[in-house]
Amino acid sequence: MTTKRKSAGGSAKPIMVDAAKGEGEAETMARVMVGPYLRHGIVAHGIADKMVSKLPGEPHIDDFGKIIKAKAELTCKGDMTLASEMLTAQALSLDAMFTELARRATNNLGDYPLAAERYARLAFKAQANCRASLEALAKLHQPRVQTVRHVHVNEGGQAVITDEFHHHGGIEKN
């Protein structure tokens, strides 16, 4: 199943969508649009277009969707590399935002106290989100220990208590 899309040059190009066996065109489009991959491909394509305009090879919406699907499938199989990379990049970007906003706040302190306050509030929000990203990253990589306590009560009221420790590993380091 295909639909037409306009390329940068204005000519229509097809978006390739696979129909499931016995599925009609309307059902195929509904399934694809309810699923995350094509929708997020549309968003990624739009963002890339606004950020850098024309990309080499001119990837289209469905190309972005296919890559997003491939990354999601790796994550579903337990590969948390994307999550680690994303959280690290976010933390670094948020730290850069904090630094710039804090600089602007200090530059405005004497003459424009309201502007300084607004910049400081934004700086602190960026700082808090940076910390949250780093905490999420740390949790992703730290092994967890879960203690399960079993209590067995025998005839006569005698209780036997045992502990089991379950170790849940974080991401393995290469």
Please outline what is shown here.
The chain has helices at 25-34, 36-52, 61-76, 81-108, 113-141, and strands at 2-6, 12-16, 144-153, 159-168. It is an alpha+beta fold and 174 residues long.
Main traits of this protein?
alpha+beta; single chain; 2 domains; 4 strands; two-stranded antiparallel sheet; 174 residues; two-stranded antiparallel ribbon; 5 helices
Describe the structure.
- This protein is of the alpha+beta class and 174 residues long.
- The chain is 57% helix and 17% strand.
- The protein has a two-stranded antiparallel ribbon. A two-stranded antiparallel sheet has the order 3-4.
- The longest helix is centred in the C-terminal third of the chain and has 29 residues, at 113-141.
* Total of helices: 5
Form type: flat
Q: From the alpha-carbon coordinates, what is the Rg to the nearest angstrom?
A: 25 Å
Order of helices and strands: EEHHHHHEE
Spell out the blueprint of helices and strands:
Elements: E1 2-6, E2 12-16, H1 25-34, H2 36-52, H3 61-76, H4 81-108, H5 113-141, E3 144-153, E4 159-168
Helix pairs in contact: 2-3, 4-5
